[in-house]
Design brief:
Blueprint: E1 7-9, E2 15-17, E3 25-30, H1 37-48, H2 50-55, E4 58-64, H3 68-78, E5 83-86, H4 91-95, E6 99-104, E7 107-112, E8 115-119, E9 125-130, H5 137-150
Parallel strand pairs: 3-4, 4-5
Antiparallel strand pairs: 1-2, 3-8, 6-7, 8-9
Length: 151
C-alpha cells in the first residue's frame, strides 16, 4: 500500500511533503501533544535512536496538531533534531488512520492515536503501529527497519 502524501508546515512555516523524501526510508509518527510526558518520552526516544536510524538511511518526521511555534519550542527544549510538522485540523492523522476513539485515563475520547508508519524508498508502507505504547516502541521500529532493508 502506498503512503498518502501530505503537505504540512514545519517549525519555520515552510510547507513540507512526504513526497520530497522519495528514495529514502521515512519514519512518520503521529503523537497527541508537545510537552506531555508520553509524547516527550517518545520524541526523545526517536532523538536518542538518531544514530542507528541515520545509519539505516531513515528520516524521522513527527506530526501533531500543535502549532509550528510549539514545535519549535519543543524541538529546541529537547534538541530533537528531526522534522516536526503541524496538522492543526488532524486531517493527515485522519487520512492515515491515526485519529479516532481511544481510551484516555479510563474514558473514551476522540483524538490522535499514537501511531508510527515505516515508509519505504518507493513510498510504500513497510510497517505500521497504531495505538502504540511508548516504552520499547522506537527499538521495535529500528528493528523493523533493519528487517525491511534485508528484503
Amino acid at each position: 500500500m502506498k503512503a498518502k502524501n501530505f503537505s504540512l508546515l514545519d517549525r519555520s512555516g515552510a510547507k513540507r511533503s512526504l513526497s520530497e523524501f522519495k528514495g529514502s526510508w521515512v519514519v512518520v509518527y503521529f503523537y497527541p501533544k508537545d510537552f506531555t510526558s508520553g509524547c516527550t518520552r517518545e520524541a526523545c526516544a526517536f532523538r536518542d535512536a538518531a544514530g542507528p536510524l541515520k545509519k539505516l538511511g531513515a528520516v524521522v518526521i513527527g506530526i501533531s496538531k500543535d502549532s509550528a511555534e510549539s514545535h519549535a519550542k519543543f524541538d529546541d527544549k529537547h534538541e530533537l533534531g528531526f522534522l516536526l510538522l503541524s496538522d492543526p485540523d488532524c486531517a493527515t492523522a485522519k487520512a492515515w488512520g491515526a485519529f479516532g476513539m481511544k481510551n484516555m485515563y479510563g474514558k473514551k475520547v476522540e483524538g490522535v492515536k499514537r501511531s508510527t508508519f515505516l515508509i519505504g524508498p518507493g513510498g510504500e508502507v513497510a510497517g505500521e503501529w497504531i495505538g502504540v505504547k511508548v516504552d520499547g516502541h522506537v527499538d521495535a521500529v529500528v528493528e523493523a527497519l533493519r528487517e525491511a532493508k534485508k528484503k
